Amino acid sequence: MATVRGIDVRGTQHCETTALGVLLRQQGLDLSEPMLFGLGSGLSFVYWDSKNMGFPFLGGRVKPFELTRNLADGLGLELVVQETTSPRRAWENVAARIDAGRPVGLQLDSYYLDYFSSKVHFAGHVVALYGYDDTDAYLVDTEQQGGAVTTSLASLAEARAARGPMAAKHRSFTLTAPPEPPSLHDRIVPAVTACAEAFLNPPIANLGQRGIDKAGKLVRTWLRRTERPDRDLPQAALLMERAGTGGALFRNLYRDFLAECAELLGSERLRTGHRLYAEAATLWTEVAELITKAGVSGDAQCLEQAGSLLHDIARVEREAMQTLSRL
């Protein structure tokens, strides 16, 4: 059996920030989950629908692993990423790290993990691996999945080899912090303004502020979009609130990040951004509740209300990001 010593197996709300926290705390760099999310410029929005999808998806963050790359760049961390098409080489890559006393981040499909409570394919899931024996792997996942968990080596191999949307080629990674702890004061403003600029100026209409406005129009059609609204609408709302988002489609995490930043920097613009994202977070939860109600009751008026609220959210978040872009 090989196990990395000194691992804080604390599970938090979102998978990628949970894994990042494990890797960094092992080196003495302990940041809150909202701070990890915000310094990684993690907030975004996407309205995702295509012919091969059974139902539209509302996403509230940047694409998988972009947050990790952003965080590493912003904090001056050494990020080493390994990918391969060979399952044997993939396992050798991570086993060597564990044997050397380093926890490893893995991107995989959560569907195959033994402990996972919701059997839905999602190949953008991220966990921290900190040990293994002849039959099992020892992981840290989100709080809702159990924090410190185990899965069979066979299931881990399946999860890492999965293909499909957002999949990576047996991706594993490590982070190394610089000898001197990075100054958060110097990193906050670039992270916030980069996130704001990307949100305000998306390349396509499905993303950022434009995507939320588009969702406000299209969500009104969702009862006609599926033959099983009683299943698909509540599932979409559940993904917004409980699928590792921290609630309110990641807006709770970003709200709390801005609160920490305002305290550290004493910035009035950060306080305004925090106030507006607190308002947006409340509205997102109301939207999820209305979508659930529409699916259960079949009442199209609930979706009309949800659409109106989404237009309000687009306005509130646009104002917040315009303020934050001027930091």
UniProtKB/TrEMBL annotation:
Q: Which InterPro entries match?
A: BtrH_N (IPR026935), DUF4872 (IPR032369)
DUF4872 domain ranges (all copies): 155-324
List, for all copies, the residue spans of the domain called Butirosin biosynthesis protein H N-terminal.
Answer: 14-142
- Source organism superkingdom: Bacteria
Q: Name one Pfam family in it.
A: BtrH_N
Q: What is the lineage of its organism?
A: Bacteria, Bacillati, Actinomycetota, Actinomycetes, Kitasatosporales
- Source organism (scientific name): Streptomyces fuscus
Protein name according to UniProt: BtrH N-terminal domain-containing protein
